[in-house]
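Hi there, hope your week has been kind to you so far. Do you reckon you could talk me through the fold, stretch by stretch? Thanks so much in advance, here it is.
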Amino acid sequence: MKKIESVLFFLQLPAGSLQLTLYQYKTCPFCSKVRAFLDYHGLPYEIVEVNPIMRKEIKFSSYRKVPILLANAGSPLQLNDSSVIISAIKTYLVSRRNSLEEIVSFYPAIKTVTEQGKEVLEYENKYWLMLDEKETKRVYPVKEVRVEEMKWRKWADDWLVHLISPNVYRTPKEALASFDYIVREGKFGTLEGLFAKYVGAVAMFFVSKRLKKRHQLRDDVREDLYEAVNEWVKAVGKNRLFMGGNQPNLADLAVYGVLRVMEGLEAFDDMMVHTKIQPWYQRMEEAIEKTGVAI
């Protein structure tokens, strides 16, 4: 198989040129993806932890999900959807031609209706970086690099993320441990926390069963998690440190961000023991801890 690596280059942004505020739930895998991206690129940002019950922190927005990123690069701008946030900010870091506002306009929201009759917003091109030909070649020296990155970013959103809840709420014991973690790390009042921990754990145990059926998972959902994780490791291969080559690319950061929310839980420990993910995962931790400006 031909070895493909992305090119590493550096860009230093002027101090204070991009002011970022991330509205999040800490234990949300989509929010974790955005944090992994921002941390790896050494971008400073403020965090606003949103109360998941009242959500008063995002009352300013008609978009009622997290993550939301408020970016000020001359004028304030709201970015929604984790993959749009990542693609838009990465485009901004690479491109010297366009304002962030112009870049965000390349990711229009399209209203669609699900089979259940629920109206949702979709972003058709959210895995694309909006670069000119010269910029594209700097980031993706060959076409296969871009195609591979987009494929696995989409895989993380469309498949991997849906394995998290059925695994962390797999049993009543695991559901209670998961909600203990959620309450401890999240923003809850005292009574809200008690309610969420015990009532939420019971509710999510049963919800996880519905999710298991919806996504056609096996009786033992761990097997689906193990298979998916090993599929990712196989795609990275033995001849690369990361899918991005010597440095993580957007697919690496997406997969790491999704898996990271299980840290400290039984599902995470089982995954580390029963799959081949540990070496790659440890390399990702080390790469992000360096908080460089490699893009």
